[in-house]
From TrEMBL:
This is Alanine racemase. It is an enzyme of class 5 (isomerase). One of its GO terms (molecular function) is pyridoxal phosphate binding. One of its GO terms (biological process) is D-alanine biosynthetic process. It catalyses: L-alanine = D-alanine.
């Protein structure tokens, strides 16, 4: 039996001086990874690009490693090195292509590039020429994104080339996996089956977070979830099965009263319909709380016309007026007079406001909210170790 450890690690700004705080529940993160790992007979890795979706490679990778995750995907070699620094025995793939000047780093660090063009393949071959032991690489074949990767015909020709060094991993990336009814999914799975057969015996990887929920992904060897580990919703058409991982809260700085008929904020985009109590909170677009979630004055947003909400004193309260660089205002008229005071925290997303709902209010996706989180927050990482 393992002893229960209660553990809070804090980083970032001093909480006495910061405007907002982020709480990152590493137990929930580990539970999410396990849920994904148990869902599929394939091996499950973790995508930790953009500093683990904004949550910090240095905090996220060790707990995933401890939970049994052995393969990590970074976007850039610099990120891959940071994974290696905290998990030296991890297998780390670098997704975003290959430049010759990075080769010495690959030689020294055991990072594995994901090559995705004939140009990159020939560069890699040339740079490996002098070596007795050729360095391993993965191959990306594009089956429908038109982003990175060889096209399918190039991939098949490469598989048939008897003189070519073979990759240790074959990957493709799904363009529409979050929309299970989309016809492109089927086409991509079929193309990848054909490629997998041509690269017989080589490990294959197709599923991102939503891809794991497609039965067709079960036939491949390695899953590459990202956002669902961090609590984001994998599918747009079903309730989110993942536990929330990140809570964002901001401090109430002042409480003001606006008079019926007056306006609020830059551009005077909201006219008060009643006398209104307004909580001015210490968070803004400089903290990644996107201006497009403003309560008014954002003509480009159409999914959620009223903008974002906060949660405080047990109730949801709407944003009023425009989000500014460092401050956001909430209409708290519907709360009891003494329900909140300066210094209290208001939740912007977390257990009471889903990350993806906060994102939709800004006309975007949970991925963008997480990776935009600024560096002015006090950060708390909770890890009891009980799910390890
Ligand atoms: C970002 C990324 C993933 C992870 O996608 P999620 O939707 O976050 O699960 C997987 N594979 C590739 C190639 C990626 O770029």
């Amino acid at each position: 039996m393992t002893a229960t450890r209660s553990n809070i690690t804090t980083t970032g700004a001093d909480p006495r001086l910061a405007g907002g705080r982020l709480t990152i529940d590493l137990d929930a993160l580990v539970a999410n990874w396990r849920l994904l790992a148990e869902k599929s007979p394939a091996d499950t890795g973790a995508v930790v690009k953009a500093d683990a979706y904004g949550l910090g490679i240095v905090h996220v990778v060790p707990v995933l490693w401890q939970a049994g995750c052995r393969t990590f995907f970074a976007a850039l070699p610099e990120e891959g090195l940071r994974v290696k620094a905290v998990a030296p025995d991890a297998r780390v793939f670098v997704l975003n292509g290959f430049f010759a000047e990075a080769f010495p780093v690959y030689e020294q660090s055991n990072l594995i590039p994901v090559l995705g063009s004939l140009h990159e393949l020939s560069l890699w071959k040339k740079l490996n020429k002098g070596r007795k032991d050729k360095l391993p690489f993965a191959l990306n074949v594009d089956t429908g994104m038109n982003r990175l990767g060889l096209n399918v015909d190039e991939g098949l020709a490469f598989a048939a080339d008897g003189r070519a060094e073979k990759p240790i991993l074959l990957i493709t990336h799904l363009a529409t996996a979050d929309d299970r009814a989309h016809a492109l999914n089927q086409k991509q799975f079929e193309s990848f089956q054909e490629l997998r057969a041509a690269f017989a015996g080589i490990e294959s990887s197709i599923a991102n977070s939503p891809g794991i929920f497609h039965p067709a992904s079960r036939e491949f060897d390695l899953n590459r979830p990202g956002v669902a580990i961090y609590g984001g919703e994998p599918l747009s058409d079903t309730p989110n099965p993942m536990r929330p991982v990140v809570t964002l809260e901001a401090r109430i700085v002042q409480i003001q009263t606006g008079v019926k008929g007056e306006t609020v904020g830059y551009g005077a985009t909201t006219t008060l319909q009643r006398d209104t109590r307004i909580a001015i909170c210490s968070v803004g677009y400089a903290d990644g709380y996107l201006r497009s979630a403003s309560g008014s004055g954002v003509p480009l947003r159409n999914a959620v016309p009223g903008g974002g909400e906060g949660f405080v004193a047990g109730k949801k309260v709407p944003i009023i007026g425009r989000i500014t660089m460092d401050l956001t205002s909430f209409d708290i008229t519907n709360l009891a007079e003494d329900a909140v005071k300066p210094g209290d925290y208001i939740e912007l997303f977390g257990p009471n406001i889903a990350l993806d709902d906060a994102a939709r209010s800004a006309g975007t996706i949970g991925y963008e909210l997480l990776t935009s989180l600024g560096n002015r927050y006090h950060r708390r990482y909770l890890h009891s170790g009980q799910s390890d």
